[in-house]
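--- STAGE predict ---
source: upstream dedup step, 1 unique chain passed
mode: sequence only
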Amino acid sequence: MRLTRKTDQVVEPKVPALGLNRRQFLKSAGLATGGIAAASMLGTGMMRKAQAQEHIPHNAPTEVKRTICSHCAVGCGIYAEVQNGVWTGQEPAFDHPFNQGGHCAKGAALREHGHGEKRLKYPMKLEGGKWKKISWDQAINEVGDKMTAIRQESGPDSIYFMGSAKFSNEQAYLYRKLAALWGTNNVDHSARICHSTTVAGVANTWGYGAQTNSLNDIRNSKCVMFVGSNPSEAHPVAMQHILVAKERGAKIIVVDPRFTRTAAKSDEYVHIRPGTDIPFIYGLLWHIFENGWEDKEFINQRVYGMERIRDEVKKYTPEEVENVAGVPKAQMYRIAKMLAETKPGTIVWCMGGTQHHVGNANTRSYCILQLALGNMGVSGGGTNIFRGHDNVQGATDFGLLFDNLPGYYGLTSGAWAHWSGVWDLDPKWVAGRFDQGEYLGQTPQTSTGIPCSRWHDGVLEDKTKIAQKDNIRLAFFWGQSVNTETRGREVREALNKLDTVVVVDPIPTMAGVMHQRKDGVYLLPAATQFETYGSVSATNRSIQWRSKVIEPLFESLPDHVIMYKLAKKLGIEKEFCKHIQVNGEEPLIEDVTREFNKGMWTVGYTGQSPERLKMHQENWGTFDVNSLTAPGGPAKGEVYGLPWPCWGTPEMKHPGTQILYDQSKEVKDGGGTFRARYGVEHNGVSILADGSFSKGSEIQDGYPEFTADMLKQLGWWDDLTEDEKKLAEGKNWKTDLSGGIQRVAIKHGCIPFGNAKARCIVWTFPDDIPLHREPLYTPRRDLVAKYPTYEDRMVARLPTLYKSIQDKDFTQGFPLTLTSGRLVEYEGGGEESRSNPWLAELQQEMFIEMNPADAADRGIRDGDNVFVHSPEGAKITVKAMVTPRVVPGECFMPYHFAGIFEGENLAKNYPEGTVPYVQGESANTILTYGYDVVTQMQETKSSLCQVSKA
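--- STAGE serialize ---
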């Protein structure tokens, strides 16, 4: 039976009862008798502003708000129950198409956001080593004055804008716009350190760098292979769909250095040595090509460069794969045969595949495997890339990146002209906001900034070696903390050196307390996403509207209000909100949505008006859980959340695209082809599709992306209205603000971005095909000569080390391979979730997993305190978890802990009342140098360490 909520009011009980009845008390106490959560339950949790809320009668009228979980990107629906303005209850939405009443531990504890005992309550300033309460006006004035002074001395690039995957889409868009109008590309967020290599690798294979299908569509898979992905802990509700597939007969393959909780559900568990994804994938392709299991027709029609891959794969014989990756020949054959014979199949990967200095090549190799098998553009197939934060997909799409503007337009002069047009600003004025100099051959406006994985190098590096005028001197840490970056000692040193540290967050975060400063730190309390409203993009590209649950607690403010205050102080508020209504100091969220609708043509964020998104929110229960399409009701024929690309204007009523590159549907119904993003030929060979096209296409072959000139050549120009012609003249499908070019292309059954082959060769990357390169801190010195890393080089604005590190042998003193990962109870750097009593009760200590053999060799027993030593000098103290989940020679650590730094407890650095319930050493204190050569992703999944008894 499917349960669908019919009303937004809860029936009031007829018989009065105690505010906390016996059943409720026993239920809560049973969860955490005498522990953290029980103490919190009986504390002063229900607070608004700075005062405790007076008693709420249990039978006070209850208003129900529809919202979306703010943890991972599954996008679970929640009904929040509010009484007298206080968030008093919640339930998972049984009629929501993603979670169907499911919750993980983090989702079940969301209500704590609306109580927030550990929250920042008002703006604060560190002065003389003491935290001092200040007003918002003082905070904004002082920060703005410091920004202006630094701009005059060092230029706009000396300000760093660290953004957040917790922003709504509208806030992410405004933050990127704020950085642009300030005049810098030094803006980034946590996608840099989770899926930046996915976006780069996948987009450069077939056009878009996002999940191609959906969690729900995995139900239709016959074979699911997880590579470096552990959804049982990282995306628990996604397992509902995965286990449905398993019940329907799907085979589950888990490829991971560690036997995870997901591996426990698998039909085939494969252990690979950390950092050997490419040898593993090429080893599978060796068997596939050797036995003729590849999809030859698909390759001939829709893939470019597979012969180069075939030649490279010949080097990865079963013997070589077993030597390098550690997987036996028989198992490799068995898995390859399973993939080839059990179709459609999908590949799921997460940070186990991305966080390597060859991460972009890893993700390309996964795509190439799917292309060889013909598993793309079909239900049950695709590459299902699970995103880890609730809006990391949206924040990426909206350009919170050091190398892009919203919609992946890049940083070219043409991209700036496009967005200046959307903003109705003079492009010369926008350009004039940037430093006009040239540094190491780069001009600031059109060159990539500094990535968030290396903001500290922007502070510490010799400024003559950085491609900008001066070092970073003031940094905003806005919704992202710093214990998520590796090389903890350098991070701390950079915090100490900055002129000013500005933390904007509901909680202090490590950026506010990890330093050794006496002054120059500001803590500005941002509201949570439950104290504002707007849209958020799930991992499958669906866009969901999130309603405000409660008013901002204490003196906290929504992020977009703080942005506006800052813009006003800097004198750019009129340009910032030229066509956005501002109520008091709050930009109207719906106007922000409409503004990005006018500019996001590349990825199809143009058809999802606020009205359409709200209508989907109000009709969760009408969408089919298998197809995500509404068979009836107000959204009949539309895909839930209008997943991008949702082509054209909202008036076109495009239904959204559940499955990318699906040629079995017409474009108007969500079908499509691979994108013609890289021209029409390479080395004199056509890279357009060959005799392959989407259903209903009037061009029944490959074709380039649509332009005004192409419409004229096809005789379709007069299909435009006169008004559309004026705006479309000289434009293409990405820059025509009328949407007419897109509308006419779709009218004739064509997709606006063209119809090309996916490419196995990326001629613009350092490695044009995926190549295995040993990790910088490799345990296999015998393989370095055969599989060396890169020469040291400049990447983006910073000098980047490769060979000079790999040339050093650390294995004698640090013989254990170290990898990191996620726990179900916590998320990200853990500051927010470790400040939640219900979650803190579940996982109270930082630990390292090590094999019984390694523990015995060191005289270590389960539960002992141990030192973990880094080859770069750092040392942390954690608990030993002795377990066969990891093989001899390999160790695992979770990355959610902080608050202790190389034995120093940082509790004294927090403002009173904000210390998280659980503290521990950070894995990233000891994780080492290493960055992807394309995106600067940090290499946290393959390093070295030594463990000794404390």
